[in-house]
Amino acid sequence: xxxxxxxxxxxxxxxxxxxxxxxxxxxxxxxxxxxxxxxxxxxxxxxxxxxxxxxxxxxxxxxxxxxxxxxxxxxxxxxxxxxxxxxxxxxxxxxxxxxxxxxxxxxxxxxxxxxxxxxxxxxxxxxxxxxxxxxxxxxxxxxxxxxxxxxxxxxxxxxxxxxxxxxxxxxxxxxxxxxxxxxxxxxxxxxxxxxxxxxxxxxxxxxxxxxxxxxxxxxxxxxxxxxxxxxxxxxxxxxxxxxxxxxxxxxxxxxxxxxxxxxxxxxxxxxxxxxxxxxxxxxxxxxxxxxxxxx
Length: 295
Ligand SMILES: C[S@@+](CC[C@H](N)C(=O)[O-])C[C@H]1O[C@@H](n2cnc3c(N)ncnc32)[C@H](O)[C@@H]1O
Description:
Layout: H1 3-16, H2 22-34, H3 38-43, H4 51-65, H5 70-74, E1 76-79, E2 82-85, H6 98-113, E3 119-123, H7 129-137, E4 142-147, H8 150-162, E5 169-173, E6 186-189, H9 204-209, H10 223-233, H11 235-238, E7 245-250, H12 256-266, E8 271-276, E9 282-289
Parallel strand pairs: 3-4, 3-6, 4-5, 6-7
Antiparallel strand pairs: 1-2, 7-9, 8-9
Helix pairs in contact: 1-2, 2-4, 6-7, 10-12
Bound molecules: S-adenosylmethionine (SAM).
C-alpha cells in the first residue's frame, strides 16, 4: 500500500467508528509509524509502506478503534509546549490545565522578585506535567510533587529525568499535603473533580482507560478538595510560616460557586479570585492566604 492510500483508508475507518477528528488522528498515527511530520505525509504520497509498517499501523488503528486514547498509543503528549512521556498509569494532561501553570508561574515570578526562594507544591501530580512545567519556567524554585498513586509517580519520574529536573522536583507519595516536608508559598492542585453521576457520560477513552483515581471526586466532585482544605486547617496550616501563601485550584465547569463557599468556610480571611479560561469557563480558583498572625 502507498502512503496516500493508507491515509485515506485509516481516515475512513476511524470516521466509520465515529471517532472525532478522524483525519487528524489518521495523520498522527501514520506519522508515528513512519516517523514523519504532517507535511512529510503530504509531500510523499507515493511512498510505499513496508509490510512491517503496514502491520504496525493496523495494530495502532485497532487500538484506537478499541477507544484507547491516542496519547497512550503514542506514549507521549504535549502540555504547555513541552513533550511528556505518558501511559495509562497517569491521567493525560489537558490543555485547560495550562491556565493553572500560567497563574502559578506568574505568582512564582512575583515571589522570587522579592528575593526569596519560592517553594511550590503540585498536589496530585500525575505524570508530573504541572510540576515539571513549573520547574522549567521557574529555575530558582523548589518544587514538591505529591500523588497517592505510586504508579503515577513512576511516570512522573520518567518525565523528571527526561527534562533534567530530578534534582529540583521532589516526588512524594502520600495523601494530598501529608508528605510535604516544609511550608510552601504556592499550592497548585488539579485534583479529581468528576461527580459520581457524571461518570457514565464520560467518553470510553476516559472512562475505560484513564485512572479512576485521577478522576473520581465523589458525590459532588469535591471530596478531595474538601479533604485538602481540612488538612490545610490542621497540621499544614501550622506550617504556613510568615509569608503569604497562595492556593491555585483547578475546578470543573460550574463548581466555582460551591468551591468559593468552601474556601470561605475554611479560611474566612482569604482573598478569592475565580479565573476563567478562553472559553469563559471558570477554571481556576486563586486563594490568597495571608498568615492569620498578620491581622
Ligand atoms: C486530575 S489528575 C491531575 C494530574 C495532573 N496534575 C494533571 O493536571 O494532569 C489528579 C491526580 O490526583 C491524584 N490523587 C487522587 N487522590 C489523591 C490523594 N488523596 N492524594 C494525592 N494525590 C491524589 C491522582 O492519582 C491523579 O494523579
